[in-house]
Amino acid sequence: QNRTLIDMQSLVSDCIAITLQRHHLPAETIVLEPTPGIVRLYTQGIAEDLRTAVLNVLDNAVKYSPEGVHIRCSLAISDYTWVALRVTDTGVGLPANQFKRIFTRFYRVPGRAMAKIKGTGLGLFLVRNIARQHGGEATAISPGPGLGTTISITLPLAAPASSAITN
Ligand code: ATP
Ligand code: MG
């Protein structure tokens, strides 16, 4: 398929704009924090698929934050090898025993608070598959129920072709 060099800041910005529009949210409800000292972060892959993954994560962040959405997105480099997108919301949160399960097919966290929010349990299964198809991974973490959730998508960092040219 169509593998290209993907500028993660611009991909995430596009996804934020789409999500704001879809949910009729004011611009300040979803922010992409600047990455200190970094101009551009690239990964190699299928832009359309990565967009689908990021849109799913943002959609969840909005959907599972029923009282007042505020979403912070950040991009960081780790080990000179990975680019990590983190999406932190102010929503219903998760107990630790759900961090892994929510990525499995058709799985939805049981309980009354969650049952009111509709879904099929496929979004994060797709997100994790897309991350893995790119040689990366998707993970979840939360300080606990009611305390918000952070979903991370980690992808191999790619250098743009121009940076390999030395003379
Ligand atoms: P859909 O297929 O429409 O995405 P879904 O949102 O239920 O349905 P997933 O996106 O796979 O399915 O998420 C699985 C479950 O993980 C959700 O049902 C929800 O219980 C939990 N979950 C996902 N994202 C969050 C979040 N940001 N905060 C709290 N719980 C979440
Ligand atoms: Mg979902």
Report on this model:
The chain has four helices and seven strands; from the N terminus they run E-H-E-E-H-E-E-H-H-E-E. The strands form two sheets. The protein has a five-stranded mixed β-sheet with strand order 2-4-5-7-6, with helices on one face. With 167 residues, it is of the alpha+beta class. A hairpin with a 3-residue loop joins strand 4 and strand 5 (82-88). Magnesium ion binds at residues 56, 59-60, 119, 123. Adenosine-5'-triphosphate (ATP) binds next to helix 2 and helix 4.
Largest sheet: 5 strands, mixed
pLDDT < 50 stretches: none
- Ligands in the structure? adenosine-5'-triphosphate, magnesium ion
Note the total helix count.
Answer: 4
**Termini Cα gap:** 32 Å
Radius of gyration: 16 Å
**Oligomer classification:** single chain
Helicity range: 25-40%
Total count of strands:
7
Q: H/E series, N to C? A: EHEEHEEHHEE
Give the class from helix and strand content and strand pairing: alpha+beta
Q: Per the principal axes of the C-alpha atoms, what is the gross shape?
A: globular
Strand order of the largest sheet: 2-4-5-7-6
**Please, what is the average pLDDT?**
92
Strand percentage, roughly?
A: 15-25%
Protein name: Signal transduction histidine kinase
Keywords: Kinase, Transferase
Organism: Tunturiibacter gelidiferens
Topology:
Layout (H helix, E strand, L loop, with lengths): L3 E4 H15 L7 E3 L9 E4 L1 H17 L7 E8 L3 E7 L23 H4 L7 H11 L3 E5 L8 E7 L11
Parallel strand pairs: 2-4
Antiparallel strand pairs: 1-3, 4-5, 5-7, 6-7
The structure holds adenosine-5'-triphosphate and magnesium ion (MG).
